[in-house]
Amino acid sequence: MSASAGPHVPPVFSRILPAARWEPVTLGESGAEVWRSTRHVLKIQPHRHPALPSLADERERLRWLRGRVPVPGVLGYFADSTHEYLATERVPGIPMSHPDATLHAERMAGLLARALRGLHSLPARDCPFTMTLPVSLRLARERVEAGLVDESGFDPQRQGQSAVDVLVELVHHRPQTEDVVVTHGDACLPNFIVQGEYVEGLVDVGRAGLADRHADLALAARSVRRNLGVKWVDPFLDTYGRELVDESRLDYYAALDELA
């Protein structure tokens, strides 16, 4: 589909998504086709393997997170025989990875740390979504067996390894305990929308749920390194709370994300 053609808006969305000028959003690696207007965001995604997040998963997580942390409101969800569609409000602001945001690296590192600390402070007993290791390792195994892992995208330290190699390593070195909190699931800078001094919204939350806090911290630290620079990783972790950070678990959950 060309950018000029605009998205296919299902007729069922005609009331909630009035005619608008749409532009494609190319940032992110969710696998969904994303379009935005001045007020709305529309995601379109083919039905996928059950080991991969669906837009229905994201809808349910957005609904639960709404009112607890800043997330876009859900306007509608629809699925046909080939695709699913999720319409949400557009969050005002820019992603933390935007060039205008990365000019203020110290501020972004601090805002990200505080946003994650706030999310992780939600009462875990209230969260209905589970992404702890029994679940995440099972899903990782299913993705490996289905050939869904892009080995070319591995971090430099794992280049040359196969997905099976990484899975075996994860199983062999699995932590005995988990520091379980409510996690974002894909805590990278593009998924945190900022405006001025505030985080206005968390987006792409299809993998949110109960997991070890290091599942978020590992991805966030890697994203800070890539987008802001390695010098800001330690300030990010210090602001979050260095006493809560286990360096070995950062490595483990970074490896687990290779199979996501």
UniProtKB/TrEMBL annotation:
GO molecular function: ATP binding; kinase activity; metal ion binding; phosphotransferase activity, alcohol group as acceptor
Keyword Metal-binding set for record: yes
Domain (Aminoglycoside phosphotransferase) ranges: 22-248
Listed name of the protein: Aminoglycoside phosphotransferase
Record has Transferase as a keyword: yes
Listed GO biological process terms: response to antibiotic
Organism: Deinococcus proteolyticus (strain ATCC 35074 / DSM 20540 / JCM 6276 / NBRC 101906 / NCIMB 13154 / VKM Ac-1939 / CCM 2703 / MRP)
InterPro entries: AGP_Transferase, Aminoglycoside_PTrfase, Kan/Strep_kinase, Kinase-like_dom_sf
Residues the record marks as active site: D186 (proton acceptor)
Binding site for Mg(2+): N191, D204
Protein keywords: Antibiotic resistance, ATP-binding, Kinase, Magnesium, Metal-binding, Nucleotide-binding, Transferase
Name of one Pfam family that matches: APH
Family assignment from sequence similarity: Belongs to the aminoglycoside phosphotransferase family.
